[in-house]
Amino acid sequence: MRVTFATEAAPGRPNEDFVAAAPDVAVLLDGAGTPPGSDSGCSHGVAWYSRTLGSTLLTAMSQSAGTLAELLSVGIKSVSSLHDGTCDLAHPGSPSATVIMLRRVNDTLEWLVLADSVLLLDVVEAAEPVVVYDDREAQVGALHRAEMDSFASGSDEHVSAHRRYVETLRSYRNRDGGFWVAATDPFAADQALIGSMPADQIRAAALLSDGASRLVDRFHLSTWRHVLDTLDESGPDDVLRQVRAAEQSDPQGTRWPRGKTFDDATALYFQL
After folding, report:
1. All residues at 6 or more sequence positions from 109 whose CB lies less than 8 Å from its CB, including other chains
2. Which of 49, 60, 204, 217 has the most CB atoms less than 10 A away?
3. Is residue 101 classed as helix, strand or coil in its secondary structure?
4. Closest by alpha carbon to 28, among 238, 236, 186?
C-alpha cells in the first residue's frame, strides 16, 4: 500500500480535521466547529476531540480484530471518559466529528463512514468510482439554511445566521429522523455506513473531509473521477489548492452560498 495525504486549516483558525495512517489502515475525522458566540460545554475544544478520537481509532484498528463499528463505539466511550469529569457531555454542542475508517484485512478492504465526509473507491474496470457518503446531515440542513445563505459570507448577519443554523442542527444530532456523528453516544457507531470489498477489486481509495469534497458536491467544479485522477497524478496538495482557489474566487458566497467561506480541508489517497 502507499498513502499520501494533505491537510490545511481554514485561514485564522486551528485545524479541526484529523488524518492519519499506519500499515493497512487509515482514518479521517472532520470536527464540527463551534461558531463564535455559541457554547459547547467543553473546555477542550473540537480539535482536541478530533485528534484524541482519531488517534484512538488508528491504534485500535492496528491492534484489534474487532469490527469497525465496535472499535468506533469503544473509541467514543474512551474519549468521553477522558473529560466527563470536567465537561458537560450532555450539552447539545459537545464536540463532535465525522469519521471515516479504512482497513485492509488479508484480502478484504473494509470501511466505515459516519456523517458527511466522503469515501471514494476506485474500482477496477469501473469508469466511475463508488461514492460512500452519509447525507443525512445535508438533508436536515437543507431545511434550515435559507436564511444563512441569503447573507454575504463574513457579514455580521451571516455570522449570526450561521450560529443559529448550527444551534438548530444540534437538536437533530444523534437521534432518529436526524443525523449521526461521533460525539458522546457510542450508539452512533451502529448508524454508520459500513461495507467491504475484495481488495483486488479496488485500485485506490480517497478519504475527503467536506472542506475538500466541496470542490465537487458544493462548487461543482470537478467530478469524483477527476478528483481521483488528480490525487493519482498530482497528489492531495493539488486538490486542496483547487479548493482554496475556488473559495478565494467567491469570498462573499455569492456564487456558492455556504456556512464557512473557508473550511479546513483534508484529503488522503490510499493506493492498494
Report:
1. 102, 103, 121, 196, 197, 198, 199, 202, 205, 272
2. 49
3. strand
4. 236
Please tell me the distance from the alpha carbon of residue 192 to that of residue 210, in angstroms, as a whole number.
17
Per-residue model confidence as pLDDT tens digits over 215-265: 999 999 999 999 999 999 999 999 999 999 999 999 999 999 999 999 999
- Contact predicate 127/76, CB 8 Å: no
Question: Which CATH number do you get for residue 102?
Answer: 3.60.40.10
State which amino acid sits at residue 195: G
pLDDT in tens, 40-96: 899 999 999 999 999 999 999 999 889 999 999 999 999 999 999 999 999 989 999
Contact 28, 17 (CB under 8 A): yes
Q: How many domains does the chain have?
A: 1
Return d(Cα 255, Cα 236) in angstroms, integer.
25
CB 185 within 8 A of CB 234: no
Q: Which three cell numbers stand for residue 154?
A: 463574513
Cell 482554496 found at = 244
DSSP state of 79: H
Give me the domain span that covers residue 124: 2-271
